[in-house]
Amino acid sequence: DRSIGLHSLHKRTFASKLRRHSSLAQALRKQAPIDIHPEVEDALGRNIPVVALESTIISHGMPYPTSLETAQSLESIVRSTGSVPATIALIGGRIKIGLQPLELEYIADTTANPNITKLSRRDIAPAISMKRDGATTCSATLIFAALAGIKVFATGGLGGVHRGGERTMDVSADLQELTRCPVGLVSAGVKSILDIGRTLEYLASQLNHVQRGVDLSTNTIGNSWSFYTARSGFKTPWRVNDAGTAATVLHTQWKLGMTNGVLFAAPIPEEYEAAGLAIQQAVERAISEAEDNGIHKSGKEVTPWLLKRVGEITGGKSLASNVALVRNTALIGGQIAVEYAKLER
Ligand code: PSU
Ligand code: MN
């Protein structure tokens, strides 16, 4: 049948055009320093679901060797859902979309490798130009995931407005990046070291294109914005209960040409909630110590310092919670990516 033949020919031409004009194809043509892990490349080319994972959480957010073990377990959790993990980092000035085992080990140990820089948007071009090594925050990971055409990204805590941010203007680049990158970001919420209320205000006003929270939990009451507890008192405007609906939200949004990201809040698993109050108290103490020591003035050092201090005060409890919640987001991210790939078929 001639019309069917024409139709599929048209589709093929269209698809190849899209591929040629994808941001990744363009960047590669301009010889951008990007290395895509063969497994990730294969997956991207065949519509096999891929989940991006950030590297700052392991380099600057957790102590070694928990960092490495966590990074490895996140990759296997993503695999268990049928998705391919792509941990993103910068090594020798090259953007790595998916890391080899030794590269993952390297990034996870900042004590042995103190030259690994924490990278946000502002740091990317200088770090590449000077051939540096760096771990990507949510903001930088969003940029590279979008560039590679990866639709889903799983992380622990999203950056946001710091306490006192109305004076210090310390607002994470993560928020702004979500408005630019067509990626579904699965996170346990904004860290409780932050000003959750102001972060949500920022999302609502500055980032009015961001769909700011689709609660994937089946077991909470929709209060999922805090980090160590699912009961922060702040509610998400929308709630979905399964990965299929979450994927449909992404698909619908991008089909309509709204090229911003979507933030999915996946609350910490219930069994880790008990520790939430003690951790929150440690957070309050760490924040006032940071102010006494002038740490709050030092920009990108603030988050790693607070996370480390809260870990010390709680005797490792916050670390265990942190690991548990990011494992949970990796699982949910993998499931959403699988459902999304079905919609693109
Ligand atoms: N949450 C954690 N550990 C981390 C981070 C978040 O539990 O290390 C990192 C993420 O990479 C996030 C970044 O993007 O902190 C935000 O840092 P800042 O506040 O400097 O923008
Ligand atoms: Mn900050």
From TrEMBL:
TM regions (residue ranges)? none
Q: Which domain of life is it from?
A: Eukaryota
Q: Spell out the protein name for this chain.
A: Carbohydrate kinase PfkB domain-containing protein
